[in-house]
Amino acid sequence: MNPFQDAPKGATPRVHGERSETVNQRDTPRLLYLLTAGAAGLWLLALLLGR
Amino acid sequence: MTGLISWPVARATLRERGLAPLTLGITLVLVILGLFRSTADTWGAEAFSGFASFWFFLLILLLGAGLVADEVESGHAQLVLLRPLTRAQWLGGRLAGAALVLCAAGTLGWLVSLVAAFTRGAFDELPGRLLVLPLALLPALGWLATLAAIGAGARGWTNAGILLAARLGFGFLHFGLPVAFPKLGLSPLLDSISRHYGPQDILLVARQFQYGERFEPSGVLWDLFWFFAAWLVAVRVFNLRELARRRA
Predict the structure, then answer these.
(1) Range of the structural domain that residue B32 is part of
(2) Which of A12, A46, B186, B225 is the most buried (most CB within 10 A)?
(3) Against a cut of 0.90, is the pTM above it?
(4) Which of B86, B216, B226 to mutate to test the interface with A (most CBs of A within 10 A)?
(5) So what's the ipTM on this one?
(6) Which residues of A touch B84 (CB under 8 A)?
């Protein structure tokens, strides 16, 4: 089983008293890449239009 | 946004950094400067330009110093990360908490200068003054994200020292090299690098808007890009640092 997979809904916690969700801590949100790329695109566009 | 920022971490950071005596002291200085520097020539930038810009940058340094490293070195970050929380969300929370303090302090200084302008009866300055606030806060947030990016790899408060050294060092080169070697014609090259060396001061855009001058938004978009890019680098470096620590 993939250790980073979320536990199915309603599943009994595997460790008593702990939440069962596991997350991939190394995840870099895709939204951050999109925001960076979007801002870079807009800046380049403004630079080209400003010439 | 919850994928980017952990709001409980942001709230805790807001309390920790916002209630620090030095932060409150510098905010008070910004408020006083906003109140007493109010003239028509400053067009809303009383708390961010001239002498006040030094205090505002000091506040950024103070809020960003050890923003990531303090928590990692004390072991608090590792404890918090036992929760189902990504490192990106934790870092986003730290950055958002410090950013909220910075925005609150800047807004307070700006608000006081706005009230001072209204007492002079300068209501026609309102459009330009409204624009000044986001234009002052955007590069400040860019510097804060840069501090987070450096701090994701550096120890303790060294991120603030590195940033200060980098800014002063480049400033020295920018003005010193053309004087030392006038025959090389380095000025245009250094000017060009300077326009992309960190977030840019974009308060001029408010002036362009207020007086109907030629509008150049590329600086604003550069600062926006810098902010997100620095945040992205901070997350990537923090991930690498934690992986390296685990492998060691």
Answers:
(1) 7-247
(2) B225
(3) no
(4) B86
(5) 0.86
(6) 19, 21-23
Note down pLDDT in tens along chain B; length 248 residues. 668 999 999 999 999 999 999 999 999 999 998 888 766 666 777 878 888 889 999 999 999 999 999 999 998 998 898 888 889 999 999 999 999 999 999 999 999 988 888 888 877 778 888 888 999 999 999 999 999 999 998 888 999 999 999 999 999 999 898 888 888 888 888 888 988 899 998 888 887 877 778 878 889 999 999 999 999 999 999 988 876 766 66
Residues of B at the A interface, defined by Cβ within 8 angstroms:
1, 3-4, 81, 83-88, 216-218, 221-222, 224-225, 227-229, 231-232, 235-236, 239, 242-243
Per-residue b or e along B4-37, where b marks 16 or more CB atoms closer than 10 Å to that residue's CB: bbbeebbebbbebbbeeeebeebbebbbebbbeb
In a domain, B140, yes or no: yes
> How many domains would you assign to chain B?
1
The alpha helices in B37-86, defined as continuous H runs, are 51-64, 69-74, 76-80
Is residue B166, in this structure, part of any structural domain at all?
Answer: yes
Q: Test A40 with B239 for CB contact under 8 angstroms.
A: no
Asked whether residue B153 is domain-assigned, the answer is yes
Radius of gyration for the alpha carbons in chain B, expressed in angstroms and rounded = 19
